[in-house]
């Protein structure tokens, strides 16, 4: 199974790196690489992580890494990473446009 990061997920990783780099440029790079590796590792067990509560019908799953959520969908051939967001963010508004 292949893993694909959307433009939104790539943008999220860049934003995370920029934020961390303000205080620690070296750690910013290594942390973004860790997040990216976690995304790629989803290929091993894509269904191991739970669907997002209250939004199961959208098929979006999440895995926690540190303070961040990796939000993704699985289909027959691919894993699509939609976003990588800080856990304090309102991911529902970003992903589901407040659709309950």
* Fraction of helical residues: 25-40%
3D shape = globular
Question: What is the number of beta strands?
Answer: 4
On the 0-100 scale, what is the average pLDDT? 93
> In which order are the strands of the major sheet placed?
1-4-3-2
Number of helices: 3
- Beta percentage is 25-35%
| Low-confidence region ranges | none
The string of secondary-structure elements, in order, is: EHHEEEH
Give a quick account of the main beta sheet: strands, pairing sense, barrel closure.
4 strands, mixed
Structural class category: alpha+beta
- Our Rg estimate from Cα atoms comes to 13 Å
Terminal CA distance: 30 Å
Summarize the structure.
By secondary structure, the protein is an alpha+beta fold.
Could you explain the architecture of this structure?
- The structure is a single chain.
- Helix 1 (about 5-20) packs antiparallel against helix 2 (about 25-40).
- This protein has helices at about 5-20, 25-40, 90-95, and strands at about 1-5, 60-65, 70-75, 80-85.
- The model has no long low-confidence stretch (mean pLDDT about 95).
- The longest helix is centred in the N-terminal third of the chain and has 17 residues, at about 25-40.
- A 4-stranded mixed β-sheet has the order 1-4-3-2.
- Helices cover about 40% and strands about 25% of the residues.
- It is globular and about 40 Å long.
- It contains 3 helices and 4 strands.
- With about 100 residues, it is an alpha+beta fold.
């Amino acid at each position: 199974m292949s893993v694909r990061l959307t433009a939104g997920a790539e943008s999220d990783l860049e934003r995370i790196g920029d934020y961390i780099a303000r205080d620690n440029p070296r750690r910013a790079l290594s942390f973004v690489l860790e997040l990216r590796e976690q995304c790629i590792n989803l290929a091993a067990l894509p269904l191991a992580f739970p669907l997002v509560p209250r939004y199961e019908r959208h098929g979006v799953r999440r895995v926690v890494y540190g303070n961040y959520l990796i939000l993704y969908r699985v289909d027959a051939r691919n894993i699509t990473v939609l976003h990588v967001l800080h856990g304090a963010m309102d991911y529902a508004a970003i992903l589901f446009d407040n659709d309950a």
